[in-house]
Amino acid sequence: MEYITNTLSNLWQQTAFTTMSGGNYIMVGVALVFLYLAIAKDFEPLLLVPISFGMLLVNIYPDIMAHMGPNGEAGGLLYYFYILDEWAILPSLIFMGVGAMTDFGPLIANPISFLMGAAAQFGVFAAYFFAIVMGFNDQQAAAISIIGGADGPTSIFLASKLNQTSILGPIAVAAYSYMALVPIIQPPIMKLLTTDKERKIRMEQLRPVTKLEKILFPIIVTIVVCMILPTTAPLIGMLMLGNLFRESGVVRQLQETASNAMMYIVVILLGTSVGATTSAEAFLNWTTIKIVVLGLVAFAIGTAAGTRLGKLLCAVTGGKINPLIGSAGVSAVPMAARVSQKVGSEYDPSNFLLMHAMGPNVAGVIGTAVVAGTFMAVFGVF
Q1: Residue 256 carries which DSSP code?
Q2: Cβ distance 42 to 11 under 8 Å?
Q3: Stated pTM of the model
Q4: Cα separations (Å) of 319 from 198, 201, 308, 322, 365?
Q5: Is a pLDDT exceeding 80 seen at residue 344?
Q6: Distance between CA atoms of 89 and 57, rounded to whole angstroms?
């Protein structure tokens, strides 16, 4: 009888029930909510499913993120994935995949889109100053503020380059969560700042973009941007390399690999490792709460700034630009562009804004990477 009792006791001690705290149960609940949004509501499942599952795993079995021991003892599985985040390898590969998947034609056809992509970066700089007011130092504030671009890879890249690994997890989770929740966060802001008449504006069809223009664009952007801000090379360089794979037409195998197999493998590794940074001990504290709030404020301000500039350009052009596309200036590609299309179609089902919104959207990707490079240059990081 004693043997049975001891055996059952040992088995019970090995279960997660004896080690999980109240905070762990809260985070498990959050993970289940994210899974529900991803699966039942289709809110960017490619992001939310791996992130929420990583969150679920680490709060049930924390050792899955255990660091490598000082004498070479093995770390947890997801720790090795996370190392690739800290080394900025996965964010750079994500950018290559995004470039290989994205048509820059709308941006080339309508260069004014660059202004809306730049306007959306106002949220980043606003969050930077708010973060300093809330007690973060300069480099922490810079790493946090980039969440305003709704760009997970750039957020991870900048935080790692600025040696802010202690807050990299919350920054990454906030950035990716807001990317996934774009369909919830942006529409109320867009509707608040635009009139019914403005939302129904139909834009003229974009001019055709030649193959030569599409080939020259990634080469010229790489030379110009990286000459001015060499620190942007890992992001801008990979983004433009992926796009050159797409547009050159001579490396179809590389384009297909970068935009499909490689992209999805990287998303799995990055998503699960980002989610695994959300252990209750690391996530349920005031610092993390402030980061999440600052990220939301930055994202909201960026959306508002892009929309406001869209309104200004609408007035300047005599009503030829629908202000809704300005909200796509945040760099959540292509989620923000799809939201512009969705909101516009609510007021005119036959209005097609998606391709017009892709211009500011792509400009936002470039703009956020440039802002990250600017912060790195300011702080002397290479």
Answers
A1: H
A2: no
A3: 0.89
A4: 8, 7, 14, 7, 26
A5: yes
A6: 23
